[in-house]
## 1
Amino acid sequence: MPAPVLELERVSINFGGVQALDQLSLQLEDGEIRGLIGPNGSGKSTAFNVITGLNKPSSGEVRLNGRSLIGLRPDQIAACGIGRTFQNLRLFGAMTVIENVMLGTHLSTQPTGSLATLFSTPTFRQHEADVRERSLAILESLSIADFAEESAGNLPYGVQKRVDLARSIIAKPKVLLLDEPAAGLTEHESRQLMDLIRKVHDEFRFTLLLVEHDMHFVSNLCSLITAIDFGKFLAEGTPAQVRANEGVITAYLGTGRIGDQARRVAAETSSTLTEPPGPVVAVQDLEVRYGAVPALHGVSIEAGEGVITAIVGANGAGKTTLLSAISGVVPPHKGAILYRGRTITRWNCEQRVADGIVLCPEGRRLFPEMTVRENLLLGSYKAQDRNGVTAALERVFTLFPRIAGRRNQRAGTLSGGEQQMVAIGRALMAQPSVLLLDEPSLGLAPNLVELIFETILQISASGTSIILVEQNASIALEVADHGYVLETGKVTLAGKAAELKARQDFVEAYLG
Amino acid sequence: MSSLTVFLQQLSNGLVLGFLYGLIAIGLSMVYGLLRMINFAHGDVLMLGVFVALPVSWLGAPFPIVLLAGIAAATVAGGIVQWTVYQPLIRSKDVTLLVASLGVSLLLQNVVLMLTSPQPKRPEPNPFLDEPFQLGGVYLRNVDLMIVGLAIVSVLCVHFFLQYTRPGLALRALAQDLGAARMMGIRVPRMVAVCFLLGSGLAGVAGVFIGYKYGHLTPYSGFLPGVKGFVAAVIGGIGSFPGAVVGGIILGLLEVFLVGYLPDALAQFRDGYVFFVLILVLLIRPSGLFGKAELVKA
Amino acid sequence: MSAQKYFPLLALMVLIAGLWLAQHSLNAFYLQILGLLGINIMLTVSLNFAAGYGGMFSLGHPAFAALGGYAAAVLTYPVTLKPSRIPGYPDWLLHHTVPFVPALLIGGVVASIAAVLVGWPVLRLRGHYLAVATLGLTVIVQVSIVNLVDYTRGALGLSGIPNHSNLWWIFGFMVLTIYVVYRLVNSRFGRALRAVRDDYVAAQMSGVNVARTRLIAFTISAFFAGIAGGLLGHLLRILTPGQFSFNAVFIGVAMMILGGMGSITGSVIGAIVMTILPQFIIPFERGGSFFGYELPALNGLTQIVIALILILAMLVRPEGIAGSKEFSFREMIARSRRPMEQTSGRPAVKWK
């Protein structure tokens, strides 16, 4: 077998106690198109950062054609022949499109020497013209030559993506790392991109490593896929093999195990509902963008009063964005948000919290230097009735007895599960009518996930409406009454949770 | 004088200066922690405070009134500046805020210049404050004791405010995670205002004492202490309240010891050393003693 | 449009004609203002190279001008005066003088060396921290000048500098500065520099050595500042540490920001406004009788106006007069044809 062109050998890296990569090994053959997939937080971006030299691994080797890249500066690694696009583009916003691409030639052109530059000798001018011509040619092959003189910062998202691609291609790298190339693209646009990448790959014959959440995209483009989770190697094979791999399915969809008692409670509450209750929160035709990147297109959902509504979907589908929009953290570009019939689209965070819509954010976002008690008190910051606060505090400690004994401990020193309890408790302190939970199972061991979800059922039983975003679709749909599946910013499936779970295309929505 | 006495004298002088720097640094550190901006006008707000206190002292008011006048003036000035200039620019680029604060600094200096004169001024001499105080060979004045005393009291008050009151809790939350704090419904503009008012008030305390201790006040007397206050904040760790106090003390001690123990020819460069220290700290340990590293590197 | 290509040549001819006219018709006072204008343009364009194009907001520019200025002055200083006024230097320096242009260039080199020494550790710092660190450089240099009396005559200032500067030298170097900066900006190096400014991580991914690019730009910027300092000293015939203090920092920043960071045209405009405008205000500052009213001396009025302009600019138009655009005939003609500015087309979502 020929030597791999890019090789990762047992690479490990640790960020503040979190093992982001754990003995990860990978070999890329010359000219192949490889996909790198994994659920949220699995370490894909970290792997890219390690290869390109932005982070130094604590152990392991990274080799390009046999030569070690460890310890080299990022620009030196680029000079060795590794190119990269970014998930969030990172274009040079104040420069024109063609200048962005011309910068891509920085390595492949020899500088003409300071004297030639200063005196604008014919050599210099010829050189500049050459670079310009090459850049224009690339722009043309990517069909964006018309935008050559436009400022790169103000263009439509699809065009910016191509500029990013052009900038990396023109450097003629040996290995090109593409970081979520299809992020934010419509179905049509991502098909175009797929063709484009294939065309460019055939023309320039470089090796491609692709990180992507869009499974259709990855399956159609890549010959082999490597799946990772928790920074560890999970599976490798053809797209079909990986999709069918049990470990991969579990990593993405989770296991839906909750205690029998809780299961009974869930069954009871959903069976007593004869008619779907009126929506407590309704979202209509919502469109949200982060700068030029579209995250949600025309999303409409309804969350019933007093029930649990689950929003599931693969990473990058827009689930967190949806909750951020409902809670007021992110303003929508278009569309409306209604709360008990009132339009609250233009309300800020503070007003929504005061009125009963409270978010428990992804990743917990506790205040690490503060004690558990202080974190909880911050949850009730808006509360007018201070006596009610003490009562609320006791209720939270009763709900989560495990943290009651740790009330004076600094939140940053708690375990993941305990932190999640504090986070939920903090949201509860605001006495919400609508509790928005963003990925409560993230990073938790299965038994803790069970515990948390049982508690979620308890909270729902007390009358709070819950909108639950989860990557672990199995358990989310186990506890929820209704569910929506989001895929690349759109709602693709909706219905009663039990029905959704049984559907054939449900798994497809995740794994293509 | 034995060398021990000399050492203790320098130590005392350094501590007094250090507490002054600490008072100035607190406001700068908290504001940077929240807004990621260096308020170049901080020192000039301090100067404004003491310049308002000056006529109050000349009219013969007792010291506590003079001090209150200075604190009030500095607090009001800080409040107005942040409300009219900094808050509107809260989402702007780094450079914009920086230039705006330079502009405010220039404005304050010259408005005071225009209303008064470039002649150095001093407050009405206060016999109580000027009275010397001796502690085993170490010579101080009462004003020095007051500085240390009031600084400690102020620091304790701020500590109490941050630890045990609701707005204090909110401020700490904002400093740790602005986004999450917003999700709790904490109103950022209001808290930013509180932060500025608090910092400016403390600077006002420092300003009045600088006036009494050193005399010789000009409209330009505030800027350099303000910038040195920032150096102190960096040493202690930008964004950290205890860091600001500790950093201030360290800087004060450093400055006094350098001036005291170096030969005269080198000692004159005292202001230069402060910045030299800044560059060293930024290179070796940019997060200072208690701060967070990610705020510093480009 | 082909007219655009001839713009530099046209501008140069206008400049030469203007200077000739000025030499023969203006009195000494206005000639000096004109000289200061040329020097200010040089300072602003060179600062803009590092700050506007390079993204390195440095408050240390006056320090480089001071170093270059004093170095050049010491070299051209008459031998008769040197031993008595600035005795600190070694004998061979005290008994020789250097001709004007080499002295200027050496001054530039001295400033460049300082830039390399300071820049290497400091340029990796973030915006505000870089600003304070470079402000520190200004303080260190100023304090050093004041205290190294044997080398600089301290706070008194070094007077008696030979009168070598004239409008032709000043504007000649100014044109050189603009030319060099313009050439560099529109080259491989310039693209790399601007890329580092816009996103240094992405620039690295394309192979740009960030630290080296920044250092080179910073050094070149300092070089021209040093020459400007030398020209200043020989124009005013005196150098004092007070000329390179916080005030100089403010004015320098104001000139660059007002004109627009990232635009050579902007720097020129900013320098012109900030040099000429104070001349109109200074009479009011001195006080006296205006239009029949008796006004007292309003100390600091000029600075107040500058400060207000700066603050207002930040609030209303932070990108400055020219933004990041250069002068172009095409733009001017197109703009005069368009009745209104086009809006960007993106709806603004307002928060309460």
## 2
Amino acid sequence: MIILIGSKYSKRTEFFLKAAGQNRIPVHFIGWNSIQEGFNYGILQRAAVKIDPPSCKITEFGMMQESLEWYQALLRELGKCSCKYLNTPGAILDVLDKEISKQILQKNNICVTRMLASRPESAAHLLDIMKESRAYSVFIKPVNYSGAAGVAAFRINPSNGRMKMYTSCRLRDGRLYNTKKLYVLEEWKEILDIINKLADLGVIVEKWHPKDVFNGKSYDLRAVYQFGRIEYIVVRQSDGPVTNLHLNNQAADIKELGLSGGIMSGIEEICNKAVSLFDGLRVAGIDVMLDKGSRKPRIIEINGQGDLIYQDIFSENIIYRKQAEFLKSMDTGSLK
Amino acid sequence: MYKSKVYSYDYDDYEEGDKSGKTMIADIMADEEFPSLEEIIIGSWGDAWEDSCQSMIDDIVTNKDKFSHIKSLFIGDMDFEDCEVSWIIQGDYSKLWEAMPQLEKLVIKGSSELKLGNIKHDNLKSLEIICGGLPSSVIESIKKASLPSLESLLLYIGVDSYGFDGDKDTIKSLLNDSDFPALKYLGLEDSEIQDDIAEIVFDCKYISQINTLDLANGSLTDKGGQLIADKIKDYPNIKKIDLHYHYMTDDIMDKLDDIADELDIDIDLDDDQEADEYDGEVYYYPMLTE
């Protein structure tokens, strides 16, 4: 039996089921809302299972944190089941933790956006870290969220103390909210208040590496890597440094960039090496930036559930079609 | 078109290596392509918010003979990925005018610590300063400049929080008291007083001699748009008006579009913006200040 765990009305579910249906592959769907206390995990035994993330409409970070902890606990429970996972719950948990995954990548000399520190206690602590490492432009990222949620690109000018922050976070009544809009902030008090709230969530601090620019916009790449190769690449363009599909940034065709064969194989190679470091990870959405100037590829982060690409689902739906076929092979025993 | 090359350090050069503004000119001169170039564009030289480009200007002056074939120079070609434009520390160009008499085009990005000194140059045809806010000291240097060949002047006026410490009288004085007999292209962009600037421009002496008026990237609203619509017919010398990035409504854009057709001129109305409303206030941000 092939099982998809996900959210009933999400695009992920709709298009995965559509892909499987087109290939006449039966899939049993289980919604996250039914995996509560008392769920019979026995149904998963010996099945081939894909785990999609639960839909989350919460925008306040305190509530998002609760939801995240619930999700992590369920993943740990699912990890105890002896079924065959497309991506194991353990692998999903590993890459969901940006601190752990970045440590693994850096330890193995994968070229990444360099983590300078993890879990600064406060804005003052962060400023100390930046001063000590002479890194005046950084990215602040919550340890456990995917996408642009809680991400802030932050700069301080060491000559005059001026600050600038690009983020989708806003404070309202003392609470931190994730919005769908990128704001540019320059008021130091507001910036430091946001950093303090982010620090409470637990963040990593990364060096801000200048991204390559195309047609006046900076961009990075979302590569969907599955079964040993890059299946699909989307170019994410932005007027600001935070590029992310969930921020409705413009996506472009990779061919437009005119990247050389050498750069393309460099991207494939870095993705290969990175994914091989995470046991149980067969499918990953890998964010790759190219250094401005040299176009040297650098991994920003890996997302164990980053396979939803609108350009693909609305055309060939190749990513989900291949996943359905792979799960079928797992289910019939030709693959484990 | 000049034969051109961009020289810019990337992250590894200045973070992991030993490159900086102090090594840039030596690296340019060591490039085998350099003798055949007419234009050099200098992008990131490293920590541009901390180290000014002064050493590069000084090195060009010191090696002026080796730069005698360079007709076009751009210092500071960076975007926000490298450095916020208002944070780029520029330098003092006073000695460059004499050192590069063959120079035809100079582009400067960033205005922090920018000094132009006494500008006297017989060949310069184009001067462009891209910044978040132009200090009045720089505007003063341009106002007093002796640039008999200057055909194109493009200045980003910017906002006070990024360095523009003048007002509409500063712009009026620049246009009334300067002397650029060859001027064909007048660009005063990226201003939060763009409507006022439109009014000042149509009252200045250059309006009868230019063929291109550039008031783009600012907070131009219907007030400025209406003024342009009312006055442009009196100046058949103007063949192109660049107003892209503006806050005009469809009505005024339609009116200007009709006028463009009627007069057979080119008016760029692209990239219309919506004002930001926050706490009951309406904000019109110029392009380089958001």
